[in-house]
Known about the structure:
single chain, alpha/beta, TIM Barrel, eight-stranded parallel beta barrel, 8 strands, 43% helix, DeoC_typeI, cytoplasm, deoxyribose-phosphate aldolase activity
Amino acid sequence: MTHHIDPTTLAQYVDHTLLKPEATAQDVADLVAEGQRLGVYSVCVSPSFLPLDAGGLKVATVCGFPSGKHHSEVKAAEAARAVADGADEVDMVIDVGAAKAGEFAAVQADIAAVRAATPAPVVLKVIIESAALTDEEIVAVCQAAEAAGADFVKTSTGFHPAGGATVHAIELMHATVGGRLGIKASGGVRTSADALAMIEAGATRLGLSGTAAVLAGLEADAGY
Length: 224
């Protein structure tokens, strides 16, 4: 299936991402220009860079990032401000500790609070920090995200020491909510082989900071 994906098609899976704390406005302008050149789906930047003219690309941002250890009303306020500032998509971080403690109703309520602040057509993605969770916790958190009305579940912030996306986590997420929610692989997806493996496992979106290298690798591998 996926070995037929060409660079133009793969680019449309990509949230072209820059979330480093030291990023500058010039870095974001460069990100947008590169994203336009590569034909990506969206650019994902920190909320302080909004509003952002992304030249026709979708604008994604983050909420409660990267720890998720924020009060729900603060996450909701941050998300509402991002939407007011023109964000098309908001990627929120759950309270990972609540998930580790088995408090899935609290996880669901936290997501629901942000969902209420980001009404459709805004896309709400829920970062579950899959590398820090057991298989059972991944499943339960995906179920909580669906129950709370989220549009996507997403593996990782890319900032957690436990690591980023894995094929196993994507497969679990897909088995739990695939076909109903989108599934975003992010964190450590750095090669075309990584990207294709994630799509094969069920990912419908990719969060990449090194998009150009991934697409160039695909061209080299496939002879495009």
